[in-house]
């Protein structure tokens, strides 16, 4: 099966590039509302499932034990830009558990935000693990480990109590087995499991509605969604797609990007979960493809539609600031 085109790139009035992929929308009972392409092929969700990975942090009581704020819970599900507030908040989470940045096992990289990276370099600084886009998730893992009275050392390993709890949450919420033969290592060193795209959409339908989850897990999911809606900057950063989307839509949508062209979303008021994967791993394509699906299923008033339009069709400009093309979903989508 050749997957359909999810996004196309124009130059002038001509389509210059096309991005193929698969996408699916399901309800919390697994009923398929929309499907395109091969949605049964296992894919690595990467960072798209951080909200599910954070469920044990809340369910265990660790988040309350250490007094994590809404902003800190939002950071725990983020792929942030490494801006100063992101790094400061990660450190705050660690200190509440009596730890420091030396506990983080995600590795260090320069802030993804260019202004933050330049400022750090000009000041003569070096990037630390706090700047890693996954530092909030990892700070949450350290808090969970401490809350379980387990040594945080090695918390990225598959057999650590933290990753066992995370794997259990992923399996229950998505309904898919997370097995060793489909395990890889993510960019931040934790296990990542390849599962069908349909399972990811089901997981997000459950994450958004609470249906199919136990009471404690449903409450944890609701707290995570509320935290992200209240603090969308923490989930991504300045001018990032998730921050812009949730800043506009608020609690009506929880969205989360993953690496290699994966995107997932929950629409709580509709009880729907969305998941897509661009075959070539293009993030620019995944963004407009997700926006197209949101626009298709989520009712919006005219002011919201007007504000949403730039997210559905990204403008491309050259170095002189001249518009040269667009990234958009094909008209048929």
Index terms:
single chain; 333 residues; alpha+beta; 8-stranded antiparallel β-sheet; two-stranded antiparallel ribbon; 14 helices; 12 strands; 41% helix; 20% strand; Asparaginase_II
Please provide a written account of the structure:
This protein has 333 residues and is an alpha+beta fold. It has a single domain, classed as Beta-lactamase (3-Layer(aba) Sandwich), CATH 3.40.710. It contains 14 helices and twelve strands. The strands form three sheets. Strands 1, 2, 3, 8, 9, 10, 11 and 12 form an eight-stranded antiparallel beta sheet that branches. A two-stranded antiparallel sheet has the order 4-7. A two-stranded antiparallel sheet has the order 5-6. Helix 4 packs across helix 10. The two termini are 18 Å apart. The mean pLDDT is 96.
SSE map:
Layout: E1 5-11, E2 14-27, E3 32-36, E4 42-43, H1 50-53, H2 55-59, H3 62-65, H4 70-76, H5 84-96, H6 114-122, H7 135-147, H8 161-174, E5 183-185, E6 191-193, E7 195-196, H9 197-209, H10 215-230, H11 232-235, H12 241-249, E8 254-258, E9 262-267, E10 272-278, H13 283-297, H14 302-312, E11 313-317, E12 323-328
Antiparallel strand pairs: 1-2, 1-12, 2-3, 2-10, 4-7, 5-6, 8-9, 9-10, 11-12
